[in-house]
Amino acid sequence: SEAAERFTAANPKSAAIQEQALAAMPGGNTRTVLHYHPYPLRFARGEGCRLWDVDGHEYVDFLGEYTAGLYGHSEPVIRDAIKQAADDGWVLGGPTLLEARMAETVVNRFPALERVRFTNSGTEANLMALATARAHTGRDRVMVFKGAYHGGVLYFSGSPLNAPFDYVMGDYNDAEGSAALIREQGDRLAAVLVEPMSGSGGCLPGSGAFLQALRDATRETGALLIFDEVMTSRLSPTGLHGLLGITPDLLSLGKYVGGGLSFGAFGGRADILAKFDPRQPGAWPHAGTFNNNVFTMSAGLAGLTHVYTPERAVSLNADGDALRARLQTAIDDRGLPLAMTGRGSMMALHAGRTAPTSPPEAAQRNRRLVDLMHLDLIHGGIYTARRGMMVLSLPMDAAAFDTLAAAFEEFLDSRRGVI
Ligand code: PLP
Questions:
Q1: Record's family (predicted)?
Q2: How far is CA 307 from CA 15, 112, 116, 317, in A?
Q3: Rounded CA gap, 28 and 7, in Å?
Q4: 325 pLDDT above the threshold of 80
């Protein structure tokens, strides 16, 4: 298409590096989600909420490392914490004060976390949460939702690579059908794993009725309710479950909570996590060389303590609500059949006048339109996720929001004919 040709003409250095990368990685890629046609931009550096690619273009970064980039690039407090960790050695091979303080901080912050354990990624956190639920209940099967993404080996959209658990799938936001499925599964079902807002599925909020139905039905059958808040824990000072007032049995975290370094955590009810207490005979093992790596512990602790304070969580999400409304107004002023969805600092664009309510519905509607928007926004100096998702970071100011709004309006006006 003409948008792809314009992209190719503007990005010869990214093209050359892509060619080089093809020799060692399939598709020149080690993160499938970052690939797009004709080839992805290669980045040279970032600062605050801005990025520069190898061809010298500047972008406002609305991809925000898929929510892990909440602090922006080289945030000074976090940079100092990383430097301190580097000065003090980083393969200590023993527990540290840092991880004790990091654990205390997340336990105090997120109501569902009575106890916590750290991992290296959100994928691993979810794998551990599911394994914990299966061991705790003595049951095999787990329930997830069609189109859900919970990590590289937990992607319920036809991937042949998933961890070999026995799954059943519900429909996201179908309260009655999901509760019925949970009851029908009865004492075969160990856990229900769900994001309280589907993030990569298109920033689709789970309704209160849906999430409460999952809470009630799992309580009835003895399955554990696991909230994957790897993305959504940024949406309030107490995570999305804290905001909604629904407490799962287990919770997984990741992304920005580690200050922008590799991070995951799973935890929840103290009586369940107690099985990991290594002082008792028969304790469940949970290992991982880098679970308490000092860079992440130091960066995560500094970020939560000094940067993403409860006040800033409230203001960042208020900025996101205002921006989402602003983009929707731009759509409505033009009478176009598009809908913004999301909550707080995470949002996405969808084709159609009404918001989709499930990931498969969003995926079916959007494809061509969001691909086009992605390339048009890049042309307008805005870097976003290919699937139409936009994520805020703390360094963003009014100028950053104005740049996005201008590029978005330009996209709407120039593509009116195909929308
Ligand atoms: N869960 C959700 C909801 C996610 O969005 C992601 C990553 O995008 C993950 C889990 C996996 O986290 P990680 O990429 O750290 O393995």
A1: Belongs to the class-III pyridoxal-phosphate-dependent aminotransferase family.
A2: 37, 22, 22, 15
A3: 18
A4: yes
Question: Residue 50's pLDDT is what?
Answer: 98
Which residues fall within 8 angstroms of residue 215, CB to CB, at 6 or more apart? Answer: 225, 246, 247, 248
- Going from the Cα of 362 to the center of ligand 1, the distance in angstroms, rounded, reads 19
For residue 19, the CA-to-ligand 1 centroid distance in Å is 28
Q: Where are the domains of the chain?
A: 2-70+311-414, 76-307
Q: What CATH number was assigned to the domain covering residues 2-70+311-414? A: 3.90.1150.10
Each residue's pLDDT tens digit, 27-83:
999 999 999 999 999 999 999 999 999 999 999 999 999 999 999 999 999 999 999
Token pair of 147 as six digits: 């189109």
Q: Which pLDDT does position 54 carry in this prediction?
A: 98
Place of tokens 């394994």: 131
Q: In whole angstroms, what is the distance from residue 288 CA to residue 353 CA?
A: 47
Q: Which amino acids are annotated catalytic?
A: 149, 228, 255
Other C-beta atoms within 10 Å of 84: how many? 15
C-alpha of residue 67 to centroid of ligand 1, in Å? 10
Burial class (CB in 10 A: 0-12, 13-18, 19+), 384: buried
- Residues 380-409 have a mean pLDDT of 97
ipTM above 0.95, yes or no: yes
Record: fold of 76-307: Aspartate Aminotransferase; domain 2 (3.40.640)
- Ligand 1: residues whose CB is within 6 Å? 66, 121-123, 126, 149-151, 195, 199-200, 228, 230-231, 254, 264
Say yes or no: do domains 2-70+311-414 and 76-307 share a fold: no
Report the nearest-CA residue for atom 10 of ligand 1.
150
Ranges of beta strands (E only) in 272-376 are 338-343, 346-351
Element containing residue 22 per DSSP (H, E): helix 12-22
Residues 380 and 410 sit within 8 Å (Cβ to Cβ) = yes
CA 197 to chain centre: 10
pLDDT bin (cut points 50, 70, 90) of residue 368 is confident
Report whether 2 contacts 418 (CB < 8 A).
Answer: no
Q: Rounded to whole angstroms, how far apart are CA atoms 394 and 352?
A: 31
Ligand 1 pocket test: which of 226, 227, 230 has the largest number of ligand atoms within 8 Å of its C-beta?
A: 230
